[in-house]
Amino acid sequence: MSRLRIVAPRVYVASSLLYLTNSVVIEGSSHNGLVIDPAVTVKDLISLGIDLRKAELRTEAGFSTHAHWDHVLWNPALGNAPRYATDSAIQSLQAHRDAMFAEMVRVAPGHPPDLFGRGRLTPLPPEMHCVPWSGPLVQLMRHSAHAPGHAALFVQESGVLICGDMLSDVEIPLLDLTASDPLKDYRDGLHLLSTVDPELRIFIPGHGHVGYGNKEFQYRIGADLKYLDSLEEGLTCTDSRLSVPWLQAEHNTQWSHFHGHNEPK
Question: Could you identify which of 120, 202, 237, 238 might form a hypothetical disulfide with 230, taking C-beta atoms 3.0 to 4.6 angstroms apart as the criterion?
Fold first, then answer.
């Protein structure tokens, strides 16, 4: 049975059990596909390739929404298509590749080293506002929330927003603490995503569950803004997503970054 499920016309999602990670495929008009953030284990990527063949889809292009290890993976099962990311994301990957590769080996070993990120991703410069492929128009929405060179993708034809690591119902906002103003970057990213609201039908986070409709969209934006406000103001955070131990640890790191001490209990 295929793991690919249709969430909108010509838009498919395959979810991994690891971190509830979502891979997205957009179908073109000639049995071609744009594969976005394929993840996350070797088995997941091979299964995705098999599912694409069963669906008679040929990979025309790949895209990485940002330069974290679980978003720059590839496998021969997906073909030898060109792969893209923003120029800023690729610069970040080049600067941190060794650490990201080590994390990949620790968490999801076995991926082909020569297909990991650098040298395989073609940078899309700032003047490019769409993914270069022959299928439906896929708009690039660039921001700096979560990671340098992060890009969401909006498929206007179907009203689908592919969020990258934003708007998750299972993960708190994870900030780029190396940035000069990570809270502002994250709020700016949320504001940018909110501009698609009138046309939005479905949104797909990198981790978590697919969201449907503007009501759920606004709820998740509100939840993330509430978390950011609590973090900045030093208020005790009651976000239900912190029930997961590794996310609580990430929250503690973020709290300490802004306040210089652990969150009071």
Answer: 237
